[in-house]
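Hi,

I'm pasting everything inline rather than attaching a file, because the server keeps stripping attachments. The sequence lines come first, and each chain or strand is labelled.
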Amino acid sequence: MVIGIDMMGGDYAPLEAVKGIGLYLSGHTIQASLLLIGDRPAIEALLSEQAIPADHIKIMHAEQVIGMHEHPTKALKEKQKSSIAIGFHLLASGKIDAFISAGNTGAMLVGALFSIKAIEGVIRPTISTIIPRMNGATGLLLDVGINADCKPEQLNQFAIMGSVYAQLILGIEKPKVGLMNVGEEEGKGNILAQATYPLLKENKHIHFIGNIEGRDVLTDKADVMVCEGFTGNIILKLAESLYEIAQAQSLNNAYFNRFDFEIYGGTPVLGVAKPVIIGHGISGARAFMNMIHLAQQMIEKDLMGKMKEELS
Amino acid sequence: MVIGIDMMGGDYAPLEAVKGIGLYLSGHTIQASLLLIGDRPAIEALLSEQAIPADHIKIMHAEQVIGMHEHPTKALKEKQKSSIAIGFHLLASGKIDAFISAGNTGAMLVGALFSIKAIEGVIRPTISTIIPRMNGATGLLLDVGINADCKPEQLNQFAIMGSVYAQLILGIEKPKVGLMNVGEEEGKGNILAQATYPLLKENKHIHFIGNIEGRDVLTDKADVMVCEGFTGNIILKLAESLYEIAQAQSLNNAYFNRFDFEIYGGTPVLGVAKPVIIGHGISGARAFMNMIHLAQQMIEKDLMGKMKEELS
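And the predicted assembly:
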């Protein structure tokens, strides 16, 4: 397998990407060859400086970079020689098996949705976030921002995609699916939640446990938490802020430290036909390493194939 | 002024209500007479047991109680002699100037909406929550649950009601109003947020500062945070859970301790013509005391009158 990495994306590019590759290659679970996409001289200099062995690595030069604040669609169209545009070309044509970038999030989404396309039957792809739980477990919340308005059928698909992800990647055998809502009983909620409940209840591909509330987000009541991207994004960013607050309060608490989302690496775009992983702009070496491992897992376990199966 | 208190509502009724009245009456800012509504013998016994002086206190016997899990509309209709039903009769007829209960939330809402009615022009009343900020300040979030689906015009009214509340009760001179959203720029968000932004921008009764995100909920970026009740309820319950998590982690951190919502007393129903305050079921003595103080402030400062002015 070949994993493509945009070396020019993120606030600390390309240094942290190079360091992350170093970490990955010094590990024991290397299954992938890496294709480093970006400014060749800069990458070569850093690889040598960091004393990273050349096995498993190839470089694909990209003479352009899409800036973090450029307009996604416009930039992707006009900068065909940018690392992100090249990455998607390579992924679409099968030259790489996964594509990772901590660069312009919008451009990554546009690329994923329009260069790679959705899995057959998927109304709209989604992005998720991991939610750390006090008992050491990990929950999954989706959508967290690309689908601010949803139909019940979309939430039903998020439940399936989230369940497959939780099974294959998070290692949860029979993920409990909860519908984010304002009360426990069936019939509670806004129009969307009320209309979604029966779909989830009848969905044989998931293990639906009913409604969950705000107080359940940080507990392990549900492994997969389903909502539209408006609510999900607000929960995600509130959860992210907990780490900063814990830092500001000098807590150094093991649980709150797990809200440092930088360590998780990135979020895969679920529902597209090939693995695309979007990293935080602030991604450091550890985040890059984790994204490479995640890409490797997604390929090894044929996540996209399993999703296609469950969704059909 | 006379403040009516439902003595039979809440998990620890009537003992904690009696204790709370004791705390209020031992303070230095007593401006109100209290009308205690509930089981007279039980109340009298507790008042005597707690050695609470009889000045400022009258008792109105109520022979029925609406249970915490009864159907609100049905219970209010069938139990005309319950403390909640009597409280609303007294408030509607002007015999009391405010009504407080930690009882059945649904019955309190139904009573507020149908016995007391909305302020002229108000599409739908709302409930809010206080959000503690790290710098010691206090923010206001609304709606937190009674309006799961909203129109832009409702959010615009929440902004006005929240601003008046923040000014008069929280003592914030020129409250900054933020629209809960998924991005900072105008044009971001779901259909509702997109349609609400221009209304808030043009609203001369408020000081609108633009969109705020999940990460801004616990900062002091906006004093008044506006959203529909679905998102607001999830944020509220997530915030409430932070206290339990901090407890479970044995943090004993001053900031996280402020997420013990029990201490705040209760939430007023905003947009109804008279002061109605709904307490948590778990309200203890301190919560009851705070609710009485809040009712007193709402009357003294003519909160409802000011809201009517700003809304017209």
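The longest strand of chain A covers residues 126-132.

If the labels don't parse on your end, tell me and I'll reformat.
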